Fold:
Amino acid sequence: MLSYQQEAFGTTGDGAPIQLYTLSNANGVQVAISDYGGIVTRLLVPGRDGNLEDVVLGYDSLSDYLRASPYFGAIVGRYGNRIAKGRFTLDGVEYRLATNNGPNHLHGGLQGFDKVVWDAEPYRAADEVGLRLGYVSEDGEEGYPGRLAVTITYALTNRNELRIEYRAETDKPTVVNLTHHSYFNLAGHASGDILGHELMINADRFTPVDEGLIPTGELRDVTGTPLDFRTATAIGARIDDDYEQLRFAGGYDHNWVLNDYDGSLRLVARAHEPTSGRVMEVYTTEPGMQFYSGNFLDGSNVGKGGVPYQHRTGFCLETQHFPDSPNHPEFPSTVLRPGEVYESTTIYRFSVR
Ligand code: GLA
Structure:
């Protein structure tokens, strides 16, 4: 049966009470989402044998998220991914953002949408249960222009889909690029590395980067490179190949130029974990997707149940516009103007094989 539950999840440093909402569908699939950062803390999904496992990395307590989290399960904004040197020019005005990733700006800055408290309202409909999150980012927050009103809807459907709808409006021209940062491990969050997952990405090209992971502007054909995932391939099969792009990122941490971008939803990726049989398909309206293979995990984040998350034990499929688009007029635009509505949808659909 579709249901939701709400429980206290602690308080922030400023004393704001934080809630955890648990949504369940008719098949026993369960997702827990916090109004702190819109963080998905738990996602229980059945395997081939019917066993439910928690397939996302995360922490047991709010205090761990407050202390240090590499964006586990969070909503990322205003701008997911990097903006070179934290600078961009819009309508002739230069804006300066925090540089929180070497010389560059990453994932919205020092206090991005992963670290703010959202208004939250659970709902139940005919075929899904969900959580509506709202946040107003004030003009100038983290250096971005315009007062941005954001709504995120998480929905868990009876088709075993986690659907995320993003919506935003501004009162001044600005840039927006929202995404979701769950680290998946379809064998279970505590099961070790993700290298045996077979991954398909429906993309003929990717955006090569420099050492700082900033796109050079080139759209490179994946043919003959370790980034060709058009046929499902184990994540670990080529991850340590001697290829400059993999060396720069310490593995996969790149934006794929997804095929057939016209703003409508289409299948862009499929991950399959052979031992459990779990399959996750990704559908999105976005032109790009960052596939990050958890290269920065090193055991220092001790997660749920006391499990230290070692190197490459989770992977992210972050649907998005291309990194550093504000400085690349040739990329699909991330500019949002007053009167326009930013809308984006991504679905993570779970099944077994
Ligand atoms: C994104 C980035 C990575 C890394 C992770 C978080 O995937 O592209 O480089 O910052 O987030 O650690």
Remarks:
- Residues 70-71, 81, 106, 213, 253, 290, 292, 296, 316, 318 surround alpha-D-galactopyranose (CB under 6 Å).
- The chain has one domain: 3-195+282-352.
- The chain is about 5% helix and 40% strand.
